[in-house]
TrEMBL record:
Residues 2-66 form the PH domain. It comes from Sphenodon punctatus. InterPro entries: PH-like_dom_sf (IPR011993), PH_domain (IPR001849). This is PH domain-containing protein. Pfam families: PH.
Length: 66
C-alpha cells in the first residue's frame, strides 16, 4: 500500500458512545482511507474498516478564531 499519510486518530462510535483510538492510513492511489484498531494490526493487514474516497465529496468551512 502506497500511503501518503498515516497515524493515530480518535473516532466517535455510537455503539459505546465514546471516542476510540484507531490507526488511519490514507492511500492516495487506491482512493482509500483505511482504519485499524492499532498500528500493529495495520502491520498484520487486519483492517477494521475503510472509506472509499473516490466516491465521496468533501467541503471545508472556515472556522472563526476565538
Amino acid at each position: 500500500m502506497a500511503s501518503i499519510m498515516e497515524g493515530p486518530l480518535s473516532k466517535w462510535t455510537n455503539v459505546m458512545k465514546g471516542w476510540q483510538y484507531r490507526w488511519f492510513v490514507l492511500d492516495y492511489n487506491a482512493g482509500l482511507l483505511s482504519y485499524y484498531t492499532s498500528k500493529d494490526k495495520m502491520m498484520r493487514g487486519s483492517r477494521r474498516g475503510c472509506v472509499r474516497l473516490r466516491v465521496t465529496s468533501l467541503r471545508t468551512e472556515a472556522v472563526p478564531n476565538p
